[in-house]
Amino acid sequence: MTERNQIPQVALDRLRWPLRLTQLGLWAERLTQSFWPVWSILFAVAAVLGFGLQDMLPVEIVWAGTLLALGGLVWSLIDGVRRFERPTRDAALDRLDRAMPGRPITSLRDTQAIGAGDAASASVWRAHVDRMAARAAAARPVEPDLRLARRDPFALRYVALLGLIMALGFGSVWRVVDLGGIVGNGSALAAAGPTWEGWVQPPAYTGKPSLYLNDIKGDDLTIPVGSHITLRLYGNVGALTVDETVSGRTGAIGSASAPQQDFTVVQNGKLGIDGQGGHRWTVTVQKDLPPSVTITGAVERAASGELRLPFHAKDYYGVTRGKAVITLDTAALDRRYGLATTPENRSPIVLDLPMPLNGSRADFSQVLTEDLSKNAWANLPVKIALSVEDAAGNTGAAPVVAAMLPGRRFFDPFAEAVIEMRRDLLWSTANATRTDEILRAITWRPEGFIRNEAAYLQLRVAIKQLDAGTAAGLTPAARDQVAETLWQVALKIEDGTLSDALEKLRQSQDRLSEAIRRGASKDEIAGLMQDMKQALQNYMAKKLAENKNGQNKDVAQNPAQKQMTINGDQMQQLMDRLQQLMEQGRTDEAQALLDRLRQLTENMQVAEGANGMQVPGGQAMKGLSDTLRKQQSLSDQAFQNLQNQFNPGHGAQGQSGQSNPGDQGQPGQGQSGQGQLGQGQAGADGQTGLDAQALADRQKALRDELNRQAAQSLPGDGTTGGKAARDALVRAGKAMDQAEQALRGKDLSSALDHQAEAMDALRQGLHSMDQAMAQGQPNAPGTKGQMEGATGQTGQIDPLGRQIGQTGSIGTGQAMLQGKDVYRRAREILDEIRRRSSDQTRSTEERDYLRRLLQLF
After folding, report:
1. Strand partners for 223
2. pLDDT band at 229 (very low <50, low <70, confident <90, very high)
3. What is the pLDDT of residue 752?
4. Any stretches that span the bilayer, and where are they (predicted)?
5. Is 688 left (phi over 0), alpha (psi -120 to 50) or beta?
6. What is the pLDDT of residue 857?
7. Distance (Å, rounded) from C-alpha 209 to C-alpha 214?
8. Between the N and C ends of the chain, which has fewer C-beta atoms within 10 Å?
9. Integer Cα distance of 766 and 772 in angstroms
10. How many CB atoms lie within 10 A of CB 391?
11. Which residues make beta-bridge pairs with 222?
12. Which residues contact 341 (CB under 8 A, 6 or more apart)?
């Protein structure tokens, strides 16, 4: 029998600590359930005393509340003692037993009642006891049940606790310590003396927290101007008085001993509370300086005629709004012809300055963009004044800038004349008769002169409207209607038809060719190059539109006529090559390539998918793609220079077998323009030995080009994708700046890191723009699927035969990850490359290759 009882006793002895902890939990549970009203009442009384309600209520109410609190406390104690049941060891053992399956403790305390003398039955009983002992050995203390929701359905205990916490944080509970200290020093009068409280609330726009004056023990106090001070004096009236010179109040003010005082800080001065326990401070006011705004660049005219004005604004607490006021500069105006008439009174042009959509407005840069081509002051001298305002109403202004108000330029003389008449009419209704006469004169005998019949008919309608308005007295509404008609006429004349676009292209080519022959300056040639690019883009766009509409009958009527199919990428490469030759001073080759370009434009078919011609915003993406490719070429050159520093023979070895760029065949010698361009570009990019300063200059040129592209309108502006694209371009610009600084410091390794960051940001920007275009035009041509097709027609492949995409990436253009996050996958690959490149167990050749991959990407 002793052997049978030994196992249960050992198992029960192992339950000593779980049993004790369970019993302690029972104590906590029963004390909480029995006496929770006691500490709730104590907390509530402490919160009332902490907030000082006893000083603000009548004495009768205070005594009534005190008696009620004491009565409730006594009743709660009596009820708690009556309900409380002292936890015993058996109760804890029973709770511990109930928490385990099968109640093993009860089983261990049982004895075999039947079959104790039977060996088989005894064996079964011992197995049962062993199993129960194993369960008991795994016993854990049982957590007490401290929930009081059934006993306190209104959560009064939490209300009392919250009141106590607020009293500790905002009340005067801590003043009891100070009063106790005074009592300890033997001053019974001080213990019963008055007390006070004070708060300083800074203006909301500062974002600064409130101050509790009782916690400020020093003598100096610095707060923002406009802060609101609230003081409360307790105790006998007159025992404490307030003395302040910070509010600047001179009118009727209350008594210095008023129990509650409020005023606003406007100047430096003194603030003091005189009396027992008072304090004095020297207050220094932080003045809110007015915001500032500066114009950071010249007034620019976009290709579409938009006004672009960069500016920088800052304020300590943030700029809330800004505006640009544009007024006519009459002193600089050439008062001739229609402008000689006294102008009508026009209100200044007021434009809201763009503010950052997110982030801080304390220090930021933006570009004011607005199309004012239709305004009467377009292309006239104006004065532009920028001003900004902060939350306090302070204003700051930039120096007034004098400039020509940008507007759309018209190159067609007829369109330009119509726009001038429109301007004169908007200048003053007194010019109505003169405008009517001139319009009739230029439309006399239109045969052979006005080729756009729709524009001519619309112009005649405008003349009749002007006649009718002049006869009856031209009203501002009728004048504005005629002006709008003249604007539409000028647009039709300027844009013209395909033949007009071809004629303008020929004229721009002739002007550029003449400038090359007579050795014009670089600035003049650059301007003529830009004009020719615009004319070429306009012609290709109209050519493509005519082909799509089935209006081009040349191929169908002359199937034997040899025509060349060309897309926007190929034409852009020819233009880049032409500009490169002129910058290098190779005028003969530039003239030959220009002649070749003229032949191409005379006999070409514009291919579908010409980037920048069919897709809205495609030209901007094309420019950024070119910038990405140029940055890649520059990074390759910097990497080659870095290799040459450690292996001088590497550069010469890599250079062998390449021909000089100047040895390429001239245009017209059996090589197509595209072939010459590819060879010339390869030769230019393949040169080695460029010093760090030359690379830095190229990097700066790329940064300037990126700034010009970012200042233009980008696809998806105003959308989430457009914002992400602009943020990526900002990161790319910063990385380019850092790369330039590293190159000038001859730190090629750091330069390569920053160039890789710039290329990554450019790729992200192009991806965001592509997504924005796809979202904005889900069914329009030029969305994702069609752009991939266009990319496949460029014919640009890498040495392994893979297509080079529009965004500078290499791939098939197919979704290979089947819906997975491509950016997450790319980052995982980069992390794996970094891990392998630092693995010393791998060969030196492999680690060098992995490091080169990291330098590129």
Report:
1. 285
2. very high
3. 86
4. 35-53, 59-78, 155-177
5. beta
6. 57
7. 15
8. N
9. 10
10. 18
11. 284
12. 424, 427, 428, 430, 431
- Domains 174-286 and 292-404 equal at CATH topology level: yes
In one-letter notation, the amino acid at residue 459 is: L
Tokens of 561: 């006529």
With CA atoms as reference, report the closest residue to 712 among 633, 802, 621: 621
Q: What is the rounded average pLDDT of the residues 804-819?
A: 48
Instruction: Match 């304090």 to its residue by tokens.
Output: 279
What are the CA-CA distances from residue 52 to residues 47, 271, 537, 545, 685 (Å)?
9, 24, 80, 83, 82
Instruction: Tell which CATH classification among 2.70.98, 2.60.40, 1.10.3210, 1.10.3470 matches the domain 292-404.
Output: 2.60.40
Contacts of 190 (CB under 8 A, 6+ apart): 179, 182, 183, 276, 277
β-pairing verdict for 604-606 and 395-397? unpaired
**Bridge partners of 230?**
199, 262
Q: Out of 392-401, 419-428, 502-511, which region has the weakest mean confidence (pLDDT)?
A: 502-511
User: Quick one: pLDDT at residue 312?
Assistant: 95
Distance CA 540, CA 552 (A): 13
Query: Rounded to whole angstroms, how far apart are CA atoms 804 and 826?
Result: 18
Bridge partners, residue 285, by sequence: 223
**What's at 395, amino acid-wise?**
T
∠ CA 551-552-557, rounded to 5°:
120
Q: Give the model confidence (pLDDT) of 463-478 as tens digits.
A: 888 888 777 778 888 8
Which of these, 402, 330, 391, lies nearest to 362 by C-alpha position? 391
d(CA 839, CA 846): 10
The 3-class SS string of 473-510 reads CCCHHHHHHHHHHHHHHHHHHHHCCHHHHHHHHHHHHH
Q: What tokens does 688 get?
A: 């080695």
Among 736, 641, 649, 756, CA closest to 696: 736
Q: What is the mean pLDDT of residues 349-374?
A: 88
Would you list the domain boundaries of the chain?
2-165, 174-286, 292-404, 413-496, 628-655+662-811, 815-857
Q: By C-alpha distance, which of 306, 341, 309 is closest to 322?
A: 309
Find tokens 């450690």 and name the residue. Answer: 646
Q: Are 535 and 505 in contact (CB under 8 A)?
A: yes
pTM of the model: 0.43
Tell me whether strands 228-233 and 395-397 are parallel, antiparallel or unpaired. unpaired
Alpha-carbon gap, residue 721 to 773, rounded angstroms: 9
Domain 174-286 sits in CATH 1.10.730:
no
Band of pLDDT at residue 187, cut at 50, 70 and 90? very low
Instruction: Using alpha carbons, select from 520, 599, 532 the residue that is nearest to residue 563.
Output: 599
Residue 84, sorted as left (phi over 0), alpha (psi -120 to 50) or beta, turns out to be beta
Structure-derived torsion over alpha carbons of residues 6, 9, 10, 15, reported in degrees to the nearest 10: 170
With H, G, I as helix, E, B as strand and everything else as coil, classify residue 605: strand
E strands, 303-458, are 307-314, 319-328, 349-352, 363-370, 381-390, 395-397, 401-404
The answer to whether the CB of 44 falls within 8 A of the CB of 161 is no
3-state secondary structure of 515: helix
- CA 631-637-643 angle, 5° bins: 135
Return the structure tokens found at 773.
């275009």
Reduced to 3 states (helix: H, G, I; strand: E, B; else coil), residue 613 is coil
> Measuring CA to CA, which residue among 217, 202, 212 is closest to residue 170?
212
- Terminus-to-terminus CA distance in the chain, angstroms? 81
| Kind and range of the H or E run holding 73 | helix 59-83
Other CB atoms within 10 A of residue 546 CB: 16
Please tell me the distance from the alpha carbon of residue 580 to that of residue 398, in angstroms, as a whole number.
40
Cβ–Cβ contacts within 10 Å for residue 340, how many?
Answer: 12
Greater pLDDT, 849 or 501: 849
DSSP characters over 158-179: HHHHHHHHHHHHHSSTTHHHHH
Statement: residue 241 has pLDDT above 60: yes
What is the identity of the amino acid at 334?
D
